[in-house]
Design goal:
The protein is α/β, with parallel strands linked by helices and 307 residues long. It has a single domain, classed as Rossmann fold (3-Layer(aba) Sandwich). It has twelve helices and eight strands. Strands 1, 2, 3, 4, 5, 6, 7 and 8 form an eight-stranded mixed sheet that branches. Helix 4 links the parallel strand 1 and strand 2. The radius of gyration is 20 Å and the shape is globular. The two termini are 34 Å apart.
Length: 307
Amino acid sequence: MRIDTLITNNAQTQGARRRETLNRQSPQHLENATGLMLQAVRERPYSVSRSTLVLGAGACTEVPLAALVHHSDEVTLADLDLASMQQARAELSAPAMRKAVSLLGEDLSGGVSVHLEHLLARQPWTTLASQGARALFDAAASCLDACPVPDPPRIPGLVAGNFGVVISSLVLSQLFSYPLLDVLDRVQRVAPAALEEQERHKRYQEATQAFRVRVISAHLRLLRELLEPGGLAVLLCDQRGFVFDAPNAEVSTEHRRAIPLVPLAFFELIEQSFTVVEKREWEWLTDIPAEGRYGRGYEVGGYILRR
């Protein structure tokens, strides 16, 4: 499962060194991400809990952990990657600050990848491959349709209504992307050429969109449940990816190829679940193009939301 590679990938793409790289090539990304989080903790009503929760914290590359601790009675970091969170807490200078940070290593999707893996493992992929791409993607679509998506996920150690600020830090797109990549990995093992057919398979495309919507809806419901009434949520989400071959991705859109990540329903679901206090959109670059390799980046949506 792709989720099993998360910790290894995070070790290469998160942490203090990565933060320095982002400061050089995408300073607006850090400015907007940290700015929204700090605005939320500063504007949280005095009547709600001063406990702060960060979902998808990882190594806190975009999370101003020290400032969150300063503005909170306690901060809880929750992520599947416990080692990265330990690294982030260790970077705090004062023992009292480190003591105020608790860590929770859990799958924030509620086990969606595991559920889907069980369904995928039951399919006769070799036989399906002999029947052609249509049979493969029909089976993949059936697995996605049948996959349980806990709504909301039950995360051990997190109490409903216990937090005055809940932050979802660039984790939402991962919650549905990793399982969808597991499906394509299965297809690629038995019939690599069939991957070219996925865009033309209507049922599979509909199943992937419905799966994305279910995961997004469940995550938004989780944010609502964890927030104390009157509290504020911060949602940072990669909304679209892009690859580019120009030295500067902002030179012209003709140098880019866009990769949609969230369905159009994403924006409706946010407005149905919360009152939008503030919305910002920006871009960040994860890889600069080099010889024989495209550059990569994301368009991000950042929201402050009131329950």
